[in-house]
Amino acid sequence: MPEARYKCSVQIMKSLFSLSSLFAAACATPQTSSRTAPLVDYHQHLVSADFAAVAKLPQRDGAALVRELDAAGIERALVLSVGYTYGDERKKLSEPDARTSRENDWTSAEVIKHAPRLVGFCSANPLRDAALQELERCLALPGMTGIKQHFGNGGVSLRNPDHLKRAQAVFALAQRHRAPILIHMRARGGTDYGAEDARILIEQVLPMAPSVDVIVAHLGASSPGYTEQNDAVMEVFANAARAKDPRIRNLFVDTGANIDADTTAEQAALAARRMRDFGVSRILYGSDLSAPGGSIGAGWQLFRAKMPLTATEFRTIMSNRRPFLR
Fold first, then answer.
1. pTM of the model
2. What is the pLDDT of residue 92?
3. How far apart are CA 218 and CA 215, in angstroms?
4. Which stretches within 74-221 are classed as H helix?
């Protein structure tokens, strides 16, 4: 081949390779810098006909949630079954275990209709004798990849040795199935709850599930608002992060409806400080069933307006996507 033609061929090949590399990089790189909303809402619920009658709420199926996500510009949502609610002894409901199973089945059917936009978590009150069997059964259902625990609804306190054993058993089950867990940790009524519970979680519960994601809901306590209880728990988590405690390597918190129109500048500043100390890569955005501002989109806009975080920190929170959602 003449030298001129050889050089020309090499140059063309280099140009084509360069263009193909640029194209591949553009396709492979998530376009997070241009996002205006989170990729995932990590705290959502549906409302079945049965739950609507119990909670006095309008029904909300998977299609309705997807429409709300579309309006907010959010791609996916973690749907937490409310099966646990039927095991709340205060409600005196008939057939609590059967209704828990039916709620988990209904949630599975709804999320699978809208996969992969929606991903489901099973639930059951851990104080019910049937809880472990139900969670085991539910994790085999289509679309159900994790476990939701609601200690407040179930009357669970980690300070109670018997309750602690029940919680440990659920976490051990999650470890066996490599199933992530989202836990509403605040005790019923919000009494006798705070830093001690956070320490028990780290020292005695997380070691039961060292290989799975554990998400503590509502910035450590409950919502709306960022209270002293939220801050007490978040301070323990932040201190553990600073100490590089290996037990919290898979620990996260969600923001489920905590930051709302009533959040003061002082509360928002304290919450932002704890988020930074804990690590913004561990902060998962969630809006809950009753989102601040009346919609999922409005809740996110309130979070953006109220929280004194940097543009980079907001981008990190928006792009946080855990492996079970990939």
1. 0.89
2. 97
3. 9
4. 96-113, 131-138, 151-154, 161-177, 195-200
